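Design request, tokens follow.
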């Protein structure tokens, strides 16, 4: 009686790669057997009667229930002819279960007759799965850090996932990146694996030592035409303060807001430069940029407070003179007028550049708004005018659908964009006291009615 092994230790892989490796294993078998048995061929087993199929576990204690489940996945059975295809499919089924790390098949010949029956033994090494993930956090001397914050960075480590070194170290790197963003550049993250007694569940423990948090050595603001003294005292990252990326982002926004408040509604700021002195564990920050043009925004023929302008106009709120931001401001003014009953108000935006550079193009028109480049126009004054034509003020008392008795307003009221006036609308945020519509909304409602009529045949 001899034992010959098929597909020795096929590595875990995807479906296509698994099939390739399995076929490769058969090729290797042919070569190996030829060197020891002169006339041995794979074809010698094809069609021979399989008297028994067994499955044993390697490296872990016997688990009858698990072995029975694995046996149920096999495509071969006792008292059937041997088939290389079925053996390959059985291995693939084991891998596809996600519970097998390695597997091989041993063919045991019963007797010396090369046409006699054989027995198959599947030797399976079970896949170790993640049973629990723990974080042991060392002393934190700077900005607070919690284990839950670090755990949130490990989106791919979950119970029942396959255990792999790539997965473990990927998440250790994610923790390291997060700690550096919090200023802990000297932090260490050491993962540890502990496999349970049964050999199928592992506990992963990340030993995290944050170390000392880096401090700010200097924060230089180099923006021509802007005095950083006006904002420096409001910055979080003062000299000697703990460094974090969040604090840096907030301070850059404070600088931008100071520029906007000074009338520079489109400042151009570069990404802040962050340099670390590893020996002293300190950070030097430098913020470069240009103030951009001085921008004045005027809303004509419509009284609107400065506070409301900042709420409505992205140009004033965000410090942005992109054409899309200018057009969005016009749209929001139009929406506000429509809420007040000026359903058919028209807003026209025009831009004017004082002493425009040569070859600038049209000036004082709507087209000018499309050509505003903050860097190119630094030192210039720009006026953005919203010309308002409010038109008549209406109250939308009723909405009717005529020409058919198959459809009423009540049937489609929830789908219409136009809304009738209602008493509750006098209370802010609860509706429209004078109703709400526009030419655009009326066209949308017309299409809605048309669609309903088509559905009715």
């Amino acid at each position: 009686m001899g034992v010959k092994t098929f597909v020795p230790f096929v590595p875990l892989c995807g479906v296509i790669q698994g099939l390739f490796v399995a076929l490769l294993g058969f090729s290797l078998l042919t070569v190996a057997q030829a060197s020891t048995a002169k006339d041995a061929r794979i074809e010698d087993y094809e069609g021979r009667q399989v008297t028994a199929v067994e499955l044993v576990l390697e490296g872990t204690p016997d688990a009858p229930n698990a072995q029975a489940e694995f046996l149920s996945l096999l495509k071969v059975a006792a008292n059937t002819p041997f088939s290389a295809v079925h053996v390959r499919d059985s291995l693939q089924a084991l891998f596809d279960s996600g519970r097998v790390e390695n597997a091989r098949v041993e063919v045991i010949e019963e007797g010396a007759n090369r046409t006699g029956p054989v027995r198959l033994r599947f030797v399976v090494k079970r896949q170790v799965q993640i049973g629990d993930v723990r974080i042991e956090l060392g002393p934190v001397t700077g900005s607070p850090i919690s284990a839950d914050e670090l755990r949130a960075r490990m989106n791919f480590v979950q119970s029942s996932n396959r255990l792999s070194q790539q997965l473990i170290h990927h998440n250790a790197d994610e923790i390291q990146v997060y700690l550096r963003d919090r200023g802990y550049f000297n932090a260490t993250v050491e993962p540890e694996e502990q496999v349970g007694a049964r050999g199928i569940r592992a506990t992963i423990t990340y030993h995290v030592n944050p170390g000392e948090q880096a401090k700010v050595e200097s924060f230089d603001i180099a923006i021509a035409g802007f005095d950083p003294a006006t904002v420096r005292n409001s910055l979080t990252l003062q000299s000697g303060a703990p460094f974090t990326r969040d604090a840096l982002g907030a301070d850059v926004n404070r600088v931008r807001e100071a520029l906007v408040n000074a009338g520079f509604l489109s400042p151009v700021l570069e990404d802040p430069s962050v340099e670390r002195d590893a020996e002293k564990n300190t950070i030097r920050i430098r913020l470069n940029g240009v103030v951009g043009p001085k921008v004045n925004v005027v809303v004509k023929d419509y009284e609107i407070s400065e506070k409301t302008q900042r709420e409505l106009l992205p140009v004033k709120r965000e410090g942005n003179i992109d054409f899309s931001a200018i057009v969005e401001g016009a749209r929001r003014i139009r929406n506000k007028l429509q809420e007040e009953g000026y359903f058919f108000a028209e807003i026209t935006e025009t831009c004017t550049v004082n002493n425009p550079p040569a070859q600038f193009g049209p000036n004082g028109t709507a087209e000018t708004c499309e050509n505003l480049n903050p860097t190119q126009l630094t030192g210039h004054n720009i006026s953005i005018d919203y010309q308002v034509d409010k038109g008549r003020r209406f109250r939308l008392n009723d909405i009717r659908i005529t020409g058919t008795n198959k459809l009423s307003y009540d049937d489609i009221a929830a789908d219409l964009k136009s809304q009738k006036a209602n008493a509750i609308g006098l209370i802010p945020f609860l509706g429209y006291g004078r109703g709400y519509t526009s030419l655009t909304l009326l066209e949308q409602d017309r299409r809605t009615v048309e669609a309903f009529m088509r559905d009715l045949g």
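Comment from the thread starter after seeing the answer: thanks! The chain has five domains: 3-126, 129-209, 216-290, 294-389, 409-455.
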